[in-house]
């Protein structure tokens, strides 16, 4: 076998690691894992919101990847290929969890009555700016349908472009844009609901306090 | 394009959020407080989502250990033991600079024993737990002893370190020693579990790495 080319830091470049992994080289597998584990784990964690499940899913995604690495022909970017595997692993898990055998199309296209965003603008006086943080956004993301969630995480968190998401999700670019828009609008609704609920609780607490004083 | 209404603006919200700013949409947004609110909300959502990326955590080491063990079991990777053998050998490479020649020889002997164990450990599933424990112990005890020797030599040779650096060294050693204890417990509880044994080797490797790193820092500081 030809000597492996290495970067200045002595690490295998991705393309070389893929070639060696296809020949069963253990160090090449480890290198590919090192290059991508963080993003895949992050995707799984954001999708399921639970570290133990995210670890299992990351493990499963990499196992599937390494089992299939010999079939990778470089027609798409390696990370896109890996993310497609990871997203499928997560969506399969979520489908099993919800007990439905729905198709990918169904979970990326929920109808308007079951979680799709309403076409309204919301209260004009209510603004999210200043009241939104990572915790309440993650809480809202957890409530999204799986397909919306995947597109939102891939685009707005991980920075993938719509053409890459279309490859990962197995849909059209237009579909990816539409899902992302619906996801953001649904998140806006959920966050507005959370802000209103918080305001109601504050009013209730203030009312109880003044009743106590009286 | 002239001035548009809210409905039309909503139709153009997707390209607007992608950065396509048509004059009609721009004019509408300037005059419409409601639509401006929608855009500001969506921008706040996107901005917060981007900040998730900076808060990404590394997955635990055990995921790779489990993946590797499974791949080995399935016969998908060859020379499966080279990874950690190389790691231990590399980790110990830095240590001899503060060790005497006999200690250096012993350190490599320990590595050789560990390697011999890894390559020659029994694969018969009928082998009982006691045999696994004895086998694991016979390979790890010399390694553990040599790491202890290296640690003592390291601690005494770094006497010139600042109190802060010394405290950091001791704290890190305590963490890695605690990790080794936990891994040894795991092997005792489930001696035939290959992943548990891999954790133990990984723990020893981490200690070797730590000592080598501290040795390098000590050299740099002199």
Helix/strand layout:
The complex is a heterodimer of chains A (214) and B (222).
Chain A: H1 14-21, H2 26-48, H3 51-68, H4 78-98, H5 104-108, H6 134-142, H7 146-157, H8 162-169, H9 173-213
Chain B: H1 6-11, H2 13-17, H3 23-31, H4 33-54, H5 61-73, H6 82-93, H7 101-120, H8 129-157, H9 163-189, H10 194-221
Describe the structure.
The complex is a heterodimer of chains A (214) and B (222). In chain A, 68% of the residues lie in helices and 0% in strands. With 214 residues, chain A is mainly alpha-helical. In chain A, helix 3 crosses helix 4 and helix 6 crosses helix 9. The longest helix of chain A has 41 residues. The termini of chain A are far apart. Chain B has 222 residues and is mainly α. Chain B has one domain: Four Helix Bundle (Hemerythrin (Met), subunit A). Chain B is 77% helix and 0% strand. Chain B has ten helices and no strands. In chain B, helix 7 runs antiparallel to helix 8 and helix 8 packs parallel to helix 10.
Major sheet characteristics of chain A: none
Count of helix runs of chain B:
10
Number of distinct helices of chain A: 9
Q: How many whole angstroms does the radius of gyration of chain B measure?
A: 29 Å
Head-to-tail CA distance between termini of chain A: 87 Å
Structural class of chain B: mainly alpha
Q: What is the makeup of the main sheet of chain B?
A: none
Q: Outline of chain A, from the CA principal axes?
A: elongated
**First-last Cα distance of chain B:** 72 Å
Fraction of residues in helix of chain B = over 70%
CATH topology of chain B, by name, is Four Helix Bundle (Hemerythrin (Met), subunit A)
Low-confidence segments of chain A: 101-106, 109-118
Number of strands of chain B: 0
Please, what is the average pLDDT of chain B?
72
How does the overall form of chain B come out from the CA principal axes?
elongated
Q: Could you state the order of secondary-structure elements of chain A as H and E?
A: HHHHHHHHH
């Amino acid at each position: 076998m030809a000597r492996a080319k290495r970067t200045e830091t002595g690490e295998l470049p991705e393309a070389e690691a893929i070639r060696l992994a296809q020949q069963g080289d253990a160090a090449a597998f480890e290198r590919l894992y090192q290059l991508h584990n963080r993003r895949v784990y992050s995707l799984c964690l954001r999708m399921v919101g639970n570290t133990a499940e995210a670890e299992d899913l990351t493990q499963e995604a990499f196992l599937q990847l390494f089992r299939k690495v010999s079939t990778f022909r470089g027609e798409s970017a390696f990370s896109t290929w890996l993310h497609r595997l990871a997203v499928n692993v997560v969506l399969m898990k979520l489908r099993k969890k919800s007990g439905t055998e729905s198709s990918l199309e169904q979970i990326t296209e929920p109808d308007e009555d079951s979680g799709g965003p309403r076409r309204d603008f919301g209260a004009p006086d209510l603004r999210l700016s200043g009241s939104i943080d990572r915790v309440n956004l993650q809480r809202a993301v957890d409530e999204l349908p799986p397909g919306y969630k995947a597109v939102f995480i891939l685009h707005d968190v991980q920075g993938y472009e719509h053409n890459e998401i279309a490859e990962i999700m197995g849909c059209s670019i237009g579909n990816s844009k539409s899902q992302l828009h619906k996801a953001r609008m649904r998140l806006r609704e959920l966050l507005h609901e959370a802000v209103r609920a918080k305001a109601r609780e504050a009013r209730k607490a203030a009312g109880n306090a003044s009743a106590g004083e009286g | 394009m002239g001035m548009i209404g809210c409905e039309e603006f909503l139709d153009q919200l997707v390209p607007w959020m992608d950065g396509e700013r048509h004059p009609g949409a721009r004019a509408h947004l300037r005059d419409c407080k409601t639509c401006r609110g929608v855009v500001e909300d969506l921008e706040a959502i996107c901005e917060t989502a981007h900040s998730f990326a900076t808060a990404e955590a590394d997955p635990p080491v055990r995921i790779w250990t489990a993946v590797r063990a499974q791949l080995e079991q399935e016969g998908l990777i060859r020379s499966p033991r080279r990874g950690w053998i190389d790691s231990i050998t590399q980790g110990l490479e830095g240590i001899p600079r503060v060790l005497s020649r006999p200690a250096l020889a012993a350190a490599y002997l320990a590595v050789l024993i560990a390697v011999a164990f890894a390559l020659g450990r029994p694969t018969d599933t009928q082998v009982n737990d006691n045999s696994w424990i004895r086998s694991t112990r016979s390979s790890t005890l010399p390694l553990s002893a040599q790491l202890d020797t290296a640690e003592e030599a390291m601690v005494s040779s770094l006497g010139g370190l600042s109190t802060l650096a010394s405290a950091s060294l001791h704290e890190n050693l305590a963490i890695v020693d605690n990790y080794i204890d936990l891994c040894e417990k795991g092997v005792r509880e489930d001696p035939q579990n290959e992943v548990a044994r891999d954790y133990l080797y990984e723990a020893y490797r981490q200690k070797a790495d730590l000592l080598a790193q501290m040795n390098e820092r000590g050299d740099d500081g002199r």
